[in-house]
Amino acid sequence: MSAAGDRLQDTARQTALALPDVSHGYPFTPGLDVYKVAGKVFLIVTDDPREQIITVKCEPEHARALERGHASITPGRYLDKRHWISMGPGPGITEGLVTDAVEDSYDLAIERLPRRDRPRAR
Fold first, then answer.
1. Which among 21, 11, 91, 117 has a CA at the least distance from the CA of 56?
2. How many helices (H) and strands (E) does the chain have?
3. Angstrom distance (rounded) from CA 30 to CA 32
4. Which of 28, 10, 108 is nearest to 63 (CA)?
């Protein structure tokens, strides 16, 4: 509904698709656009125009700091609330913050993969 929510989701999708070896689809439900690298989920984008959020993997301490600093960042929906955050449009939610969150989530998803399974460096 809001342009800010559309931009947040568009930025997240564009950032994810620019990263190496990313796939996406709707494996859980038609309303959740899921982005993966090497079979590991790192981004979920809702397709519900009333609830324009993204959900990304995040280091627990960084996640809590982001939640304290932004009213529209909450513990992650759908997944482990300690290691995931959900981000919606709101004060302080910039394209740069969204881009960083998606890239950090991608990095977290691949860091435990064996080197042979990791995408080529970006």
1. 11
2. 3, 6
3. 6
4. 108
Element (H, E) at 34: strand 32-37
Place of tokens 């690298």: 37
For residues 72 and 75, give the distance between their C-alpha atoms in angstroms, rounded to a whole number. Answer: 10
Greatest alpha-carbon span in the chain = 42
Task: Report the C-alpha gap between 33 and 71 in whole angstroms.
Answer: 24
- Portion of the chain with pLDDT greater than 70, in percent: 95
CA 118 to chain centre: 19
pTM for the model = 0.91
Element (DSSP H or E) covering residue 6: helix 3-17
- How confident is the model over 75-93, as pLDDT tens digits? 998 788 889 999 999 999 9
The answer to whether 103 and 19 have CB atoms below 8 angstroms apart is: yes
Residues listed for the chain:
122
Contact status, residue 7 vs residue 26, Cβ threshold 8 Å: no
